[in-house]
Model the fold of this input.
Amino acid sequence: MISILRRQLTYQDVFSPGRIRAHYVLIAKLNNKMTMLSHANLYLKDMGSSMATSNKYSNLISMFYRFLSTLDKYLDVSVSSYHSLVDNQDIKSWQVQREIDRVAAQSSRPSTETIVDDGKIIYKFFEWLGKKGYPSCVNFEYTTWQPNFKDEQLLAHIKKKALSSLDGRGVRALDKEVSQNRSYSLPTNHEIKSLILGYEDPVYAAMFKFSLGTAMRPMDLCKFPYIGNGENSHILPFENMRCEGATVNYQVTKSKGGKSREVVINLLDLKALDDHYIKKYYAPRAELYAKRYGEPCPPSILFLSSRGVPVTPKMISRRTVDARERARRLDPSIRKSIRFYDARHWWPTIFLIRRFKTALLGQMSEVRDAAAMQVIKNQMGHAHLITTYNHYLDLARVLLLAHEGFVHELVTNPSKTIEQYLDSPTLL
Done:
C-alpha cells in the first residue's frame, strides 16, 4: 500500500491580487519516490471553501487512493494515473471494505450513513474531473457506485469477510448503536452548564457562551476581534463601547463558502465576554503571544489559549471533547453526542420557541412567519431559507413537546445574560 502525505498550502493567488488561498495538497510516497497527486490537488484548490472542508476532502481522497493501491488492477499503474482507471465498482468496493473493517473491529464508527456520504464525495470528485475534461471510467448515468447495504447477501458477505464471531454484531446492530447515541434534541441546560464547567481553559467556555448568544460558527468566533476595523470599527472591549440600544450589528466576513453576513449581538453578551475573559485573561495572553511570535498581538485576534496561541476551530473541537469527557466523569447521564456546534443550533431553536410558544404545536401555516425566517437566515447565514427554517421548526417542536427538564430561553432578550437564561426556571 502506498502512503499519502497531506500538507497545508498557503499562497498568493496570481489571478486575484491580494487574495490568499489555503488548502491541503496530497503527495504519494512509494519506495522513497514522492509524487504529487496533481488532479486531486486541483480539485482541492477548486473546492476548498475552508480549511476544514479541504481537510475532510483531502483525507477521504487519501483513504480512497490508499485502498486503490491494494487492488491488483493498480499494481503496475503509476499513482498519478489512478484517476483515469477508476470505475463505479472501485468506489463501491471501497465502501464495502470500510464496512468489512468496521465489523471486524466491532466498531459503531464510521456508520453506514457516513460511509455512503463519503462515497458521494469521492463520486463528486470524479464528476468534477469529467467536467474539467480529465478522463475516468466512472459512469455518471447510474448509481452503481453505491452498494445496497440493505441487501442480505451483501451483509452476510461483509460479516464473513470480517471474520467476526458468530455472536458478533453486524452492520445493522452497529448502526443501531450509532442511532441510539445520536442526539435528536438540543442539550439541556444542565448539559450546557456541565460542558462549560468542563473546560480547563476559560477561553473555550467564553467562546461557547458567545456562540450560544450569536449562533456564530467556530471559524467565525476565532476571527472575532479584540478591536474591530472597517464595518466593525465599533467592536471594542465592552467598557469602551458607545452604543445605543440593547444590541449591536457585527459583520461576519469570509465565513463558510467565503460568504459574509451581518449578525446581531446582545450587548450583555459582550459585557459577559468582557467580564469573564477579556479583563481577566486577554492582557497576559497577549504578552505570551508577543513573546512567542516576536510581535505584538494584532487587534484582529481576541481569543488566545493559555499559551498565547490564537484559538483555531480544531483546538475548539479537541478541547470540547476533553471538556465533555470531564463532565461525563462527574455525571454519566450527559450525552456523548454533545458538541460545541450545538451552541449554533441552540439559538434559532430557542428563538422560535420564544416567538411562537405553543403555536408551534398547531398548523404549520400559523408559524410561517416571513420576518422570523429572515431573522434566522441572517443570523445563521444559510442560503436555503425554507429548508433551514423547517429544520429548526422541527427541533423547536420536539423540544417544546418534551420540555420537562429543558429550561431554555431566548438569548437575544436584552434583559438577560447567557448565565441567567441557563438558570431560568421556565421554558417559556
In short: The chain has 16 helices and five strands.
